[in-house]
Design brief:
333 residues; 12 helices; globular
């Protein structure tokens, strides 16, 4: 095994994440399912990539100056990535987050030195939505920039220039399909655009949780949501700027129960502790693999570490309260 190249900046640790063959998912799909280990980023999630590109873009435009502040509305992971990038670059961070997100994310943001503003969860049309609240704070704070991850296309550029070429190189140009869920849309759109630039025949599939509206949009042209999901950071009810022009070829709708099955299997069988969004992505990859058939090579995103959800999906009482299946080892304790 070759040791990774030494880096001269901590920011260079973002990206170039490992890719691993997921044995259980591959067997279930009848083809190769590969997981991009985004939990290996410094902030333990895929959102580090967008955070770095958003900060660098704001600097290049002259909007973010020394001693400035980065303000963002986020389910947590983008805020963690922004806080780490901002610390490394000498900026402050103000993070607005719905108060129903995991306690671990809140504690992490405070530990990183970010100013955390919690707001009740509400629909995007409500002016008190966490995204709108963060925009107002940025407008009212001297020297602040609003990261605007949902509609700032520096987000998807991180995946066009980073994640997609990495996947292409790691799989030696032999990749038949890619799928993941959409939150901001930056990952699915950016990786899709990047891979299509290498080979237009790569199938790009959206994996959408229940409660989101993108499945119906790409299936029949209407933004219609059905059901609910407890997954954090994914699920979207509008076409963000990052999603505009996303090359989606097909789509799957995945339940929390399906996602949790794969979270449990990957932990119990392969030693990977992941969040629910990763489980939903793997479930979608299995569906895509079955659709493309034997011999296909599918890649997906393992979004973040499961250690960020010890109080939720790895907590028996929380799962029972939500009416979700409890992992056998939690039941036996």
């Amino acid at each position: 095994m070759t040791a990774p190249e030494p880096q001269r900046s901590t920011l260079d640790l973002i990206g170039n994440t490992p890719l691993v063959l997921l044995k259980g998912a591959s067997e279930a799909a009848g083809c190769e399912i590969w997981g991009k280990c985004e939990f290996a980023n410094p902030g333990a999630s895929v959102k580090d990539r967008a955070a770095l590109y958003i900060v660098r873009d704001a600097e290049a435009r002259g909007d973010l100056k020394p001693g400035g502040t980065v303000v963002e509305g986020t389910a947590g992971n983008t805020g963690i990535g922004l806080a780490l990038v901002a610390n490394a670059c000498g900026y402050k961070t103000v993070i607005v987050m719905p108060d129903n997100q995991s306690k671990e994310k809140m504690d992490t943001l405070r530990a990183l030195g970010a100013e955390l503003v919690l707001v009740p969860p509400t629909k995007f049309a409500d002016p008190n939505h966490f995204v709108h609240t963060s925009r107002r704070i940025a407008e009212e704070t001297e020297g602040a920039v609003w990261a605007n991850q949902f509609d700032n296309v520096a987000n998807r550029k991180a995946h066009i220039e980073g994640t997609a070429p990495e996947l292409w190189q790691q799989l030696e140009g032999r990749i038949d399909g890619f799928t993941c869920a959409a939150g901001t849309g930056g990952t699915i759109a950016g990786v899709g655009m990047g891979l299509k630039a290498f080979n237009d025949k790569v199938t790009i599939a959206l994996t959408d949780p229940h409660g989101a509206a993108l499945y119906s949009y790409f299936a029949c042209g209407e933004l219609v949501a059905e059901g609910t999901s407890v997954a954090e950071g994914i699920g979207q009810g509008r076409i963000t700027a990052n999603l505009e022009g996303a090359p989606i070829d097909t789509q799957f709708r995945i339940s929390d129960e399906q996602g949790l099955e794969w979270v449990g299997r990957m932990l119990a069988e392969e030693g990977l502790c992941l969040g629910l969004s990763s489980g939903i992505n793997v479930a979608g990859a299995v569906e895509l693999g079955r659709k493309l058939g034997s011999g296909a090579r599918i890649a997906t995103i393992l979004c973040d570490t499961g250690f960020r959800y010890l109080s939720t999906i790895y907590n028996r009482a929380w799962l029972e309260e939500k009416g979700l299946p409890v992992f056998p080892w939690l039941r036996d304790q």
